[in-house]
Automatic annotation (TrEMBL):
Keywords: Hydrolase. This is Glycoside hydrolase. Residues 324-651 form the Alpha-L-rhamnosidase six-hairpin glycosidase domain. The keyword Kinase does not apply. The keyword Transmembrane helix does not apply. One of its GO terms (molecular function) is hydrolase activity. Pfam families: Bac_rhamnosid6H (PF17389), Bac_rhamnosid_C (PF17390). PANTHER family: ALPHA-L-RHAMNOSIDASE C-TERMINAL DOMAIN-CONTAINING PROTEIN, C, PUTATIVE (AFU_ORTHOLOGUE AFUA_3G02880)-RELATED. Residues 653-721 form the Alpha-L-rhamnosidase C-terminal domain. It comes from the Bacteria. Gene3D superfamilies: 1.50.10.10, Galactose-binding domain-like, Maltose phosphorylase, domain 3. It comes from Parabacteroides hominis.
Length: 734
């Protein structure tokens, strides 16, 4: 085994060059570690500190996850990010540890979970390892041979069924008869061998280290379930969670040794595929256990063998560290509940990255992420903005050798391009929205050349003046049928060029901007000639029913002129083909065509079936579940939350007019609503608006944050500027 590691190090040095300077620590594990799938390692280090500094930042990395205790106190619950800042590198966490230290002896303990396999959100390095470095004047705590490390053999694999191939996580079995009681606390007397150095920093297979770009998880602590009921047979506890959430289950039982307790959620087969579950094998007596691999659902299920007495059950919710500071309410309870479920769905699809769903895949599909990042600006605190920024860097860092970009990325077992999702990602609703709504342009220079390569080498505008359609690896425009790929391709490509042009001008690349303008003009000039039939947009040769998505994208891209709007509204009142993913753009098109009343009506037409499941707090992948669903039919897909964005952005009318909401407009489109209000949390503070419509007038109460200005309509042709402060005024219904 040692020869194998030496070979890996040699290959790493050749592939990655010299080890990174600036690191005194080394990657460590133990001689007995085989880096197998689902390996757990326990690390300990005792250090003497004469005087605790005011601040001490530890830099910690692991493949794949870790839990940190200092002097017996839990400091980090699930640290580490799934691997993949690029195909070769690893994230590390900066963790402030000074508050947990004391003068004299200090015990540092780290539990590492090595996934040991790749998935749609993680690339396996092949090495179960820990890196720890905390250095200050007179203090040097670095991972080296002085640490102790043991394979924690109580953590084991379950028998089949195992999680589906998309998930890098395994099921977790914990055999309490092999528990190393107290190993993570001071005074532990058990024997643990010294660690082995297995790699310097900066070489393959763990690669360079990239600082974690998002916050550590918010830990809500152990809490009792909302309700607990026992099955009629008495062998299962059904423990209701307050809402669909990311949780780790806890139990306290009295039992003889060797009893197997099975733990799973009601989403164990969510999305038609097996997800993660857990097993706990009892030791004799009273015992407590928390399963550290998170699950999600509305209900936790403990399946109990005979002879096990349950003393307590709880759950710990953890999740992305953002606050629910955005809000929306109106006089229609349906819209209020839809907004509420949209926010819950958004939050449960945020963790290491934006996810399509938290059960079947946990994968950063960028079609989903485009919708999700737009929702976050209206629902969550600004710390949420960092997650999309992380995703942007990952998407472009994983660009293939042929210039193609693909998602999900990171991914150790997927490299296929869905062309229209990629155009959406780099375009107006993806990269540009992230820049414009956050005000953060820091990523633009770093990704521009790769974005440019994708749009101009992989994609081409042909002799027809329109984009040359591409199938890519998976020609996917949406779930469902009647998908007009020709119209959609040109609309998404045009929006991608629009975003690229804005970035080119921002970076002073005037030649690029001029060339992009020529390409956009070519599409504008030729679009109607090829696709407009006189009553709708259709590709020549397209045989399906008229595609509502295609009409919507023609509107939101700006390629459809206003004189087409009456005909397009008629189409959107007849055709209902879009999945919840693309329905967002259909609804936005209706608001753009000044049809807010029908937009609200269509929301109800489309979402009523989904909302008629009162037991669910999240939105679905399709319009229903089972046969009425799409894809895997998950019940927690944030791409369905488009109305969240539109209720705040269009109904309440709050949109930025300069980056980061430094200036913004308030142009409500209330439709049939009489009362509506919204809160939007920005880097400058909270924008708060309250609307009351009476006849042709709207009474507005508006809070404008310090450092910003608002623009409001005083007539159909004139806007008025309002500076920071509290304002009350009347505007006409536009």
């Amino acid at each position: 085994m040692k020869h194998y590691f030496l070979l890996l190090l040699l290959i790493g040095c050749i592939a990655s060059g010299r080890a990174e300077s600036g690191w005194k620590a080394h990657w460590i594990n133990t001689e007995r570690c085989q880096s197998a799938t689902n390996t757990w390692l326990a690390f300990r280090k005792t250090v003497h500190i004469d005087k605790v500094p005011q601040t001490l930042t530890a830099r910690i990395a692991a493949d794949s996850k870790y839990w940190l205790w200092i002097n017996g106190r839990l400091v980090v619950f699930e640290g580490g990010l799934k691997r993949g800042p690029s195909p070769y590198d690893t994230y590390y966490d900066p963790v402030e540890i000074a508050p947990y230290l004391q003068s004299g002896e200090n015990t540092i303990a780290v539990l590492v979970w090595h996934f040991g396999k790749s998935g749609f959100s993680h690339v396996n390095s092949g090495l179960a390892a820990l890196l720890f470095e905390a250095v200050a004047p007179g203090i040097e705590i670095v991972s080296d041979k002085s640490w102790q490390c043991a394979v924690y053999e109580a953590y084991q694999n379950t028998d089949a069924p195992h999680p589906n191939y998309r998930l890098p996580e395994s099921n977790i079995r914990f055999d309490a008869r092999m528990e190393m009681s107290g190993w993570n606390r001071p005074g532990y007397t058990g024997k643990m061998p010294n660690a082995e150095i297995i790699s310097p920093v900066g070489v393959a297979p763990l690669g360079k280290l990239v600082e974690r770009p998002i916050p550590l998880w918010k830990d809500y602590g152990l809490k009792p379930y909302a309700s607990v009921r026992r099955s009629a047979a008495g062998d299962t506890l059904y423990c209701r969670l307050p809402y669909n959430s990311q949780v780790t289950p806890y139990l306290k039982v009295e039992a003889p040794a060797g009893k197997v307790i099975h733990i799973r959620t009601d989403n164990y087969e969510g999305g038609s595929q097996y997800n993660v579950r857990a097993e706990y094998i009892t030791r004799d007596g009273v015992q407590e256990y928390e399963n550290y691999g998170w699950m999600n659902g509305h209900e936790m299920q403990y399946i109990l063998p005979e002879g096990v007495k349950v003393l307590d059950v709880k759950f710990r919710e953890t999740g992305y560290n953002a606050e629910f500071t955005g809000s929306f309410s109106c006089n229609d309870p349906f819209m209020n509940e839809l907004w509420k479920r949209s926010v819950r769905t958004l939050y449960i699809t945020m963790r290491d990255s934006y996810m399509d769903c938290p059960d079947r895949e946990r994968a950063q599909w960028w079609g989903d992420e485009v919708n999700e990042l737009g929702e976050a600006f209206y629902a969550l605190s600004p710390s949420s903005h960092k997650l999309a920024l992380k995703g942007i860097h990952e998407l472009m860092n994983w660009q293939r050798e042929d210039g193609v970009i693909f998602s999900p990325a990171p991914a150790g077992n997927w490299r296929k391009e869905l062309p229209l999702q990629m155009l959406a990602s780099v375009g107006w609703y993806g990269f540009y929205t992230q820049y414009y709504y956050s005000g953060d342009s820091s990523f633009v220079a770093g990704i521009y050349d790769r974005m440019h390569r994708y749009l101009h080498e992989v994609w081409q505008v042909g002799k027809s003046g329109l984009v040359v359609e591409r199938d890519g690896d998976w020609s996917w425009g949406d779930w469902g049928e009647n998908i007009d790929m020709g119209v959609l391709s040109n609309c998404w490509y045009y929006l991608a060029l629009k975003a690229e042009k804005a970035f080119a001008l921002q970076l002073g690349k005037t030649a690029d901007a001029e060339e992009i303008s020529r390409m956009m003009y070519s599409i504008e000039k030729c679009f109607d000639t090829k696709f407009w039939t006189g009553s709708a947009y259709r590709s020549p040769g397209y045989k399906g029913e008229t595609d509502d998505r295609a009409q919507a994208m023609a509107v939101v891209s700006g390629l459809a002129s206003a004189d087409k709007y009456p005909a397009l509204v008629k189409v959107l009142k007849k055709e209902y083909h879009a999945s919840p993913y693309m329905e967002k753009y259909v609804l936005e098109a209706l608001f753009r065509m000044d049809e807010p009343a029908f937009a609200l009506e269509r929301i109800k037409q489309r979402y009523t079936k989904m909302m008629n499941y009162p037991e669910y707090t999240t939105l679905f992948e399709g319009w229903g579940i089972g046969p009425d669903g799409f894809g895997g039919g998950t019940i927690n897909h944030a791409w369905s939350g488009g109305p969240l964005t539109l209720l705040s952005q269009k109904v309440c009318g709050v949109e930025p007019t300069s980056p980061g909401f430094r200036s913004f407009k308030v142009c409500p489109q209330m439709g049939t609503l009489t009362d509506a209000s919204a809160t939007i949390d920005t880097h400058f503070g909270k924008i708060e608006v309250s609307l009351k419509r009476k006849g042709k007038k709207i009474q507005v109460a508006l809070s404008v944050p310090e450092g910003t200005a608002a623009e409001v309509p005083v007539s159909k042709s004139r806007m008025e500027r309002l500076e920071a402060g509290e304002h009350s005024f009347v505007i006409p219904v536009l």
